[in-house]
Design brief:
Layout: E1 23-34, E2 37-44, E3 58-63, E4 67-72, E5 83-88, H1 92-98, E6 105-112, E7 125-131, H2 135-147, E8 155-161, H3 170-177, E9 183-188, E10 198-199, E11 216-221, H4 224-237, E12 244-247, E13 263-264, E14 267-268, H5 269-272, E15 275-277, H6 278-285
Parallel strand pairs: 7-8, 7-11, 8-9, 9-10, 11-12
Antiparallel strand pairs: 1-2, 1-6, 2-5, 3-4, 3-6, 12-15, 13-14
Length: 290
């Protein structure tokens, strides 16, 4: 599933829309998540509608006069009026995006890429693993699975952050923790006096999660080293490599497989990912600087 470009109109002969031309979106709301992280609710211009997207897909967000970067959608797929994006200030473009106020206008292209296998996972157990900002791309999959909860077996959400104050979507995680049909396990690298949970790396939570490895689909997003160790722990627990799915991050420019900036082995992360099976990328993940 690659870039969603407009089809040519065979009857009128009009050409396909320019895939590099962003649509104008308005910032409807800004939610401060962390000191360096905000969530933007983006609504299309008058007369336009928000395209459908699959959990795990991303958009290219354009800060006018600054540049464009890929950002995963972090809101529920059934929210028809807005795209929701959670952005951390780590560079010039993300800094500009995190400083936007309600009413501001940005450019948006997308959605692009392959999403999480939420439909293919039906009938079995699901383990969702997120490290740091990796919870943002995983969040739409959680929404979708909870909405179709009877279609799945046991569901576990494992989340890690550097410190208790770095937890993303903390109030939502606490609400989810109260649900009897969702196991939520959280850990931090460094605890403080307020923290009474687990301390350690995210892969260490896998042994505490409840799932049948022979019938489990895993969805993992976070720093690459965390994903590698999580995949190894899942394999050791008995989950098949083909059922472990990772969301990769690379430098994307065009988002439609033309520029080659996001090439990863034989694939382009923008159109062959960002979600891909561990089985497909295992060897490439251990190659230095790939």
């Amino acid at each position: 599933m690659g870039a969603m470009m407009a089809d040519s109109d065979a009857s009128s002969g009009t050409e396909a829309a320019d895939p590099f031309l962003p649509a104008r979106y308005r910032v409807a709301a800004v939610h401060r998540e962390l000191a360096d992280t905000v969530t933007l609710d983006l609504v299309p211009g008058p007369g336009a509608t928000r395209p459908d997207f699959a959990p795990g897909q991303f958009n290219m967000l354009y800060a006018f006069g600054v540049g464009e970067i890929p950002i995963s959608v972090s809101g529920p797929p059934d929210r028809s009026s807005a795209f929701v994006h959670t952005i951390r200030n780590v560079g010039a473009v993300s800094a500009a995006l995190t400083k936007l106020a309600p009413g501001a206008t940005i450019g948006l292209r997308g959605p692009y890429g392959r999403g999480w296998p939420v439909a293919a996972a039906e009938g079995g157990d699901v383990v969702l693993i997120a490290g740091g900002l990796g919870l943002a791309p995983v969040r739409p999959a959680v929404y979708t699975i909870l909405r179709r909860r009877t279609s799945y077996g046991r569901v576990a959400l494992l989340c890690g952050s550097r410190t208790p104050s770095d937890q993303l979507f903390r109030e939502e995680l606490e609400r989810w923790s109260e649900q009897a049909d969702l196991q939520v396990l959280r850990t931090v690298d460094h605890a403080d006096a307020t923290w009474h949970g687990y301390v350690g790396v995210v892969p260490g939570l896998i042994a505490r999660a409840r799932f049948d490895p022979a019938n489990t689909t895993a969805m993992v997003c976070g720093p690459e080293i965390m994903m590698r160790f999580s995949a190894t722990a899942l394999l050791q627990a008995g989950v098949a490599a083909s059922r472990i799915h990772l969301s990769l991050e690379r430098n994307m420019h065009c988002a439609i497989g033309l520029c080659g900036h996001c090439q990863f082995g034989p694939d382009f992360v923008c159109k062959d990912g960002p979600v891909t099976s561990y089985q497909r990328v295992a060897q490439a993940l251990v190659a230095p600087e790939l």
